[in-house]
Amino acid sequence: MTAYDYDLFVIGAGSGGVRAARIAAGYGARVAVAEEYRVGGTCVIRGCVPKKLLVYASHMAEEFEDAAGFGWQAGQAAVDWATLRDNVQNEVARLNGLYIQTLDKAGVDILPHRATFLDAHTLQVGDRQITARTILIATGARPAMPDCEGEALGFTSNEAFHLDTLPRRMIIAGGGYISTEFAGIFHGLGVEVTNLYRGDLILKGWDRDIRERIQAAYAAKGVRFHLNTVFRKIERQGETLLAHLKDGTTLETDAIMYAIGRKPNTRGLGLEAAGVTLGENEAVAVNAASQTNVPHIYAVGDVTDRVQLTPWRSGRDMPLPTPCSAASPGWPPMTPSRPPCSASRRPPASA
């Protein structure tokens, strides 16, 4: 019988990868995780958690206004973006540390390097070559960029948490929950926001009455909408950005953020060396049990381009301990066709 360095090797320490590693280690498997950035993944580091903190902060201006009616005299309220930004990142750092502690307590080896396939059982991790009986790909996804001249002048949701200063004006491109959430956040923090979307109604796939209500509520709050078009060209003119659109109009702004979708992180992993098949959008192709065409290699989370939600990523890894440890039970795969989801918006749909 072939001797491997690990029973399970996980590439990526996000929601799915951390949970799979911890559970498998709990059943006695020898487990390692390779993570080239920070432990916690999109949700903890540059997604749900820091975003929700910004959502809470964006509510405060209206809270101060309402307070006057209850007798409070707080004076003129103003947000200090640098303080907010840094405090949010301090919380992210704290959670990153807790995730590391969780893996350490479970006996999982954390390797702070990029891992790439050399063959179906062998990985290059830093300056080491490591073998594993079962391998889990959990590398997540990255924000997509528009296909237009000058796209490098804008930024994505990854960079939105680290802006040096708040711009006076901002265009946010996209019509999904990420663009909708950030439009509410930045508007609440005092930025003049224009939501640029290729369709005529945001939040495609949601119930139409909710979509209409949210878009109308945003417009009533002061968020501008420029619909049914996309970027043709972006250029800088002094301190101003000019967004030339395919409908023939040009918008002036101080910053442009892209939230137009996400791309699975499969490039540069050496998947061809392992014989792993990719599907649409460069995603790892898997079956209902998150198994690739190579029987001992699995993939969970955004890298499979299925449902990009943290509970889905975490739940999808539940079949993984079975092939990693004889002591582990088997769980049925998650198979809801339309899992519930939510978005943190200001104002909320119920307002």
Shape: globular
- How much of the sequence lies in strands comes to 15-25%
| Mean pLDDT metric | 91
CATH class of the largest domain: Alpha Beta
Percentage of residues in helical conformation? 25-40%
Could you describe the largest sheet, including whether it forms a barrel?
7 strands, mixed
- What is the CATH topology assignment of the largest domain? FAD/NAD(P)-binding domain
Which stretches of 5+ consecutive residues score pLDDT under 50?
Answer: none
H/I helix tally: 10
Class computed from helices, strands and strand pairing: alpha/beta
Radius of gyration: 22 Å
Please tally the β strands and state the result.
17
Order of helices and strands: EHEHHHEEEEEEHEHEHEEEEEEHEHH
Describe the structure.
With 351 residues, the protein is an alpha/beta fold. It has helices spanning 15-26, 41-46, 48-68, 81-106, 157-160, 177-188, 208-221, 271-274, 310-316, 321-324, and strands spanning 6-11, 31-34, 109-111, 115-117, 122-125, 128-137, 141-143, 155-156, 169-173, 192-197, 224-227, 231-237, 240-245, 250-253, 255-258, 262-264, 297-299. The protein folds into two domains: 6-142 and 263-324, FAD/NAD(P)-binding domain, CATH 3.50.50; 145-260, 3-Layer(bba) Sandwich (FAD/NAD(P)-binding domain), CATH 3.50.50.60. The strands form four sheets. Strands 1, 2, 3, 4, 5, 6 and 17 form a seven-stranded mixed beta sheet that branches. Strands 8-15-9-10-11 form a five-stranded parallel beta sheet. Strands 12-13-14 form a three-stranded antiparallel beta sheet, with no helix packed on it. Helix 1 (15-26) runs parallel beside helix 4 (81-106) and helix 3 crosses helix 4 (81-106). The model has no long low-confidence stretch (mean pLDDT 91).
